[in-house]
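[RESIDUES AND BACKBONE]
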Amino acid sequence: MGRYNGPVCRLCRTEQRKLYLKGDRCNSDKCPLNKKRGAPGKDPKARIGKRSEYGLQLREKQKLKRMYGMLEKQFHLTFEKANRMTGVTGENLIILLESRLDNFVYRMHLAASRSQARQLVSHGHILVNGKRVNIPSYHLKPSDVVEVKEKSKKLVSILDSLKEVSKSGVSSWIDLDIDAQKATFVSYPSREEVADLADIKEQLIVELYSK
């Protein structure tokens, strides 16, 4: 599966929102948004026109897709799966995105960003129910146990990232054992439990793909 290899700060500037594609480094003084940099390719003095309905829907989709580090085809397939599930399609989409293995590794604070979490999974450092899984898009189910492979537990990047647990804690649907570098996927999160997506209007994405 392909992935975006371009400058990630440019993506945040495009959406005029921090997507945290570099983890904690997005809070540094070097972040273009902290310097109030405008969207790329735009004259800083140019007036920003009112976006059309389609423009609003597109930007909402792009924000969510880029936050989870996905390309269009993979994101669209995830949406189609959410649409086939019972319940509210937009909420199903968030559930599917949050239950991805790379996202769960990020939520466990084993990595500073989702891209770093994706690399840990791809390189075989992560076990699911005792078996190595190197597919970042693997979807977890409640009661699945995710842990770091024994030989990888001393990786500096993982140990540094775990320090964030004491600062921000973990999501309510994750039962984390820091010392064992292991966590249980307790349940699918509700929409309200995904606090960092509070400003995302997933219904606009549903409307975009329903055209």
Observations:
- The radius of gyration is 18 Å.
- The chain is about 40% helix and 10% strand.
- The mean pLDDT is 85.
